Amino acid sequence: MQKRFSLLLIEGKRSDRTSFLAGLTKKKILVQSVSSGSAALTLIEESVPDVIIVDAASMRTSGKRICTALREKAPHLPIVLIVDGSTPTGNNLATDVILNLPFTLQKLFNRIKPYLPQEPKNIYKVGPIHLDLENRSVRCLGHQAMLTPRLAALLKSLMEHSGHVVEREALFSRVWETEYTGDTRTLDVHISWLRQAIEDDPRHPRFIKTVRGLGYRLDVEDAQSYNGRGPLRR
Predict the structure, then answer these.
(1) What's the pLDDT score for residue 48?
(2) pTM of the complete model
(3) Is residue 28 domain-shared with residue 84, that is, in the same domain?
């Protein structure tokens, strides 16, 4: 996960129990920890987490009152309750998941993972260029534009080979899905439209460069470049 998801952990301080805080933090989750239900209720007024974990076993309680109060305060927040094997549980508890100790940290993470926001799919990022293929939109510095399916496919191909010179025929064949490359002038038109979508000055492009006699190359600062920058052929 690239994004830092937010989790509220409610657990008591017991010398005979290992805290889940360190392990969850290593999973690249932003964890806020409090030691009581009242502190949790105060905290979610200021910052709403993605998931709440109530470690009732660490507080020597069933967790029922805490979970009920949390559910009333934030009805849509997922709540995971941790209890020991001797604590009675039932369907009347206001929780989404109940875990009985003992269990591994990985099992805890697997149970909360479905409740964490998912990363967007079909997102391509190269330097400042962000291409959303699902919505066919592009963001670059201060520019944002909607793209046609062809333009989105063209930009995707250039981004996949950032730093390479992509030959005109290869690029045309890949994006237009054809073996006929006798007339690639429509490619030039689409490159012009693409420059208008992402460049500050389309007449003097910073990103999409024309390599005379060969094709086009996407130049992006901090992007991984092709050693030698030779042409990419089919």
Answers:
(1) 87
(2) 0.53
(3) yes
